[in-house]
Amino acid sequence: MIGNYELYHPWFLLLLLLVPIMWWWQKSKINQEFKIIIPHLEGLGNIKSARSIAYKYLYILRYVGLIALIIAMARPRQILKEEEIKAEGIDIILVMDLSSSMLARDFDPDRLTVSKETAKKFIDKRPYDRIGLVVFAGESFTQSPLTTDHRIVKEFLSSVESGLLEDGTAIGMGLASAVNRLKDSKSDSKVVILLTDGVNNAGYIKPMTAAEIAKEINVKVYTIGVGTMGEAISPISRRSDGRYIFGLSRVEIDEELLTELSELTGGKYFRATNEQGLEDIYSEIDKLEKTEIDLKIYKRYSEEFRVFLLFGLIFIALEWLLKNTILKTIP
Predict the structure, then answer these.
(1) DSSP code string of 85-100
(2) Distance between first and last Cα of the chain
(3) pTM of the model
(4) pLDDT band, very low/low/confident/very high, at 35 (cuts 50, 70, 90)
């Protein structure tokens, strides 16, 4: 099998081994036919006409035609696949923290950029799921509703930046917005993946209240705390022109709260201290939340032997025609 092509009767190709033998025999026979004994006439030695040369190599047409016929006998055909996919997808809302601390440089180049790129890779692994995006800082906002158009979700992910929302960390608001998007979902499996690097310090909805609502409507919450242990270079203030001033600050993640949110809803809490760790976390979530797929593959074939058969017959007929007309010789 080569690419999308296969041979239905590949054993016929063994006949190709006879071609070099027949070629050698034919060539030696022609060389003997062209040995002419004539009286001493020095001028005739270098005389070669186009007709004589063409006749000498006419037999090549026969072998090209023979090779084409052997390939036709092997019956090459193109495989045309049809897939019927019945997928019971999962509804997933990604909830991403856009607070200024997400610009901390303990990840390269910063936590937010790495988090966005890793989330895109996760989306690419979930072709049959509906995915949405919620962002939060001091308030929350639904950036993309649930959709199977993952290209749009990834474009929204690329466009979100720190500073789009009032600064702060409203974990409860972010989770509540995600749960609200999932409350009307008909899917048997509903998941929220909430990523943050801080402590809940804003918003009018308590995180545990949002988690209780999630539990009521069977939404599973996975939480991810992003940030190294100890201290990191992070924004500590802002200039009048809007640019951040960076300095060393302590990494504070409310791991106890994030663990409670996950455990209450049947999810799990993860801590990512570097880029590879974050990728591993998304990979683990991908394995935990598998989409049920019923895949049936139907094969159709496009027979390609006719082309070789046609060319083979044309070359053999052409040799016979030339040999008995233009290149005919006198015995």
Answers:
(1) EEEE--EEEEEEE-SG
(2) 48
(3) 0.67
(4) low
- Helices (H) and strands (E) counted in the chain, each on its own, are 10, 11
- Give 275-330 pLDDT, tens digit per residue: 999 999 999 999 988 877 665 666 777 888 888 889 889 988 888 888 778 777 65
The DSSP letter of residue 316 is H
Contact partners, residue 248, CB within 8 Å, separation at least 6: 231, 232, 233, 234
For 63, the domain range is: 5-80+299-323
- Are 47 and 191 in a shared domain? no
> Do 232 and 144 sit in the same domain of this protein?
yes
| 123 and 26 both lie in a single domain | no
Choice between 152 and 238, residue whose per-residue pLDDT is larger: 152
Contact 140, 160 (CB under 8 A): no
How far, in Å, are 61, 67, 322 from residue 25 at the CA level?
15, 16, 21
